[in-house]
Structure formats: C-alpha cells, structure tokens
Amino acid sequence: MDINGIVVSPDPRLRQECAEIEEIDANIERLAEQMKRQMFDNGGCGLAAPQVGELIQLVVIDTEYTSERDYDPYVLINPRIVEQSDTLVPSKEGCLSIPGINVEIKRPDRIVVEAYDLNGDLLRYEASGDLMCVCLQHEIDHLHGVTMFERLAPSERMSAMHDYQEALARGAKPGQTE
C-alpha cells in the first residue's frame, strides 16, 4: 500500500534485501530527484528507495533543512557502515513508511558510512550522537529489509504494531508521528 507516494508497512517490499546499483545512469539520477521531492513533501529527513517501491540501494538524507531554500539532501548509493561504536544509545524514531508512531530504538552512537554519490565518487560520512547518526542507520536498515519493528524486543514490537494499526485507522499519513 502507498500513501502520498510512500510505501507503508506491512508492504512486503519493505522487508526485502535491495540490490546494489551497478551503474549510475539517468534513471538513477531521476529516481534520486523524485525521492528528494517525496521526502520533502512528506516532511522526512531520510528516505530509502524501497520506501518508494524501488528495491535498490539508494538513500537520500537531509537532517538539517528548515525550509525549501536550504533543502539539499545527500544522495548515497550502495551505502555501507564501515565503523560503529559499541556504545548503544536510545533515540525516538519515526518512519515515513510507518506513519503515526514513534518508537525508542537503541543504536550505536557513532558510525562511519561509505557510499557513492551521483558522480560515482566514494565518500565517507561520519556521524556521532545526532540525528544524522540515527538517520543513516535507519535508512541503511531499509536497504536490508529491516524496519523499526525489527529493532524492537518482541513485547515492544507487539505494542508498536498495535499503536501503528490504531494510527492507520485514524488516518495517519507519512510524516505524521504521535
């Protein structure tokens, strides 16, 4: 099921491993631009290709914009976490594909990600203790078929899924949280 162009849970596309991008061509560039627009239109700070129905390893992220004037997302192709701390910290997370709820998830508080940009250049992104750190991990999870639900303990997952069903029944849309 899609809402506002965003694939929402429990759509099976959100639980699939995504293919690596072999070639950066005009189709990938168009998809990246489409994803940037959809992320902005839905008020997100990150969006992965499976969230728009494309099972490839492409992510867009902008955790610092305040308006369309300063909106300039990073495009990450085939991103990989190459380093991460052993220290886990809790953070409230929402997801465009799971509208209407936030859940607390523990993640490493420091990561290093390598990814290609649209020019085919390999870049490194380092993030520590901030929204960018959480967002990178969250979006990379999507590329491997992992949603927020899978990061929760079984009892927390059941509660979150119940809250999510209630949020959908109330008409929750991507970008809306509790």
TrEMBL record:
What protein name is recorded for this chain?
Peptide deformylase
Q: Does the keyword Phosphoprotein apply?
A: no
Manner of cofactor binding, per the entry note: Binds 1 Fe(2+) ion.
Reaction(s) catalysed by this chain, per the record, are: N-terminal N-formyl-L-methionyl-[peptide] + H2O = N-terminal L-methionyl-[peptide] + formate
Under SUPFAM superfamilies, the record lists: Peptide deformylase (SSF56420)
Q: Name one GO molecular function term.
A: peptide deformylase activity
- Which cofactor is recorded for it? Fe(2+)
Q: What class of enzyme is it?
A: hydrolase
Question: Can you tell me which family this protein belongs to?
Answer: Belongs to the polypeptide deformylase family.
